[in-house]
Structure formats: C-alpha cells, structure tokens
Description:
Elements: H1 2-8, E1 14-17, H2 23-28, E2 36-39, E3 42-46, H3 51-61, H4 64-74
Antiparallel strand pairs: 1-2, 2-3
Amino acid sequence: MLGRIREKLSDLDYREVDPREDPDYAAQFNIKYAPGIIVDGTIEFVGIPRERMLLDRIRQLQAPGQEAQEEEESS
C-alpha cells in the first residue's frame, strides 16, 4: 500500500513501522505490538489504515499549495 501512495505523494517523509523489524525506532513512538504509520516524525496511525484514510491524512498535512499541485498533476 505504501508503494502506491509514494507514487502519488512523494514529498512527505512517511513510513510503516513494524516493532518486530525495527524495535528501536518503534520504541521512540511507543509502538509495541501493531505496526504504525509515522508521517513527518509524528505517529498518525497504529495499525494499518485503509489506503484512502492514509491518503486523506497525508493530504491534510500537506501545505495548501502542494495539495493543489498534486490534484493538477493527477488530472
């Protein structure tokens, strides 16, 4: 899922964190069991959200000018 989102919104720093694979990074965000989604250094989701929910949240975090530019590019 993150691969498809990266194609659409490549200018934000976001990643899925699995505490089993990266326990030190996950501990920084107090993620112990479920995967988490970190956007620009802030935990936005614990667990894997639906793609639409994640895309909507990332777009909310973008600057207004960037959001308009993304919409133009996808048209």
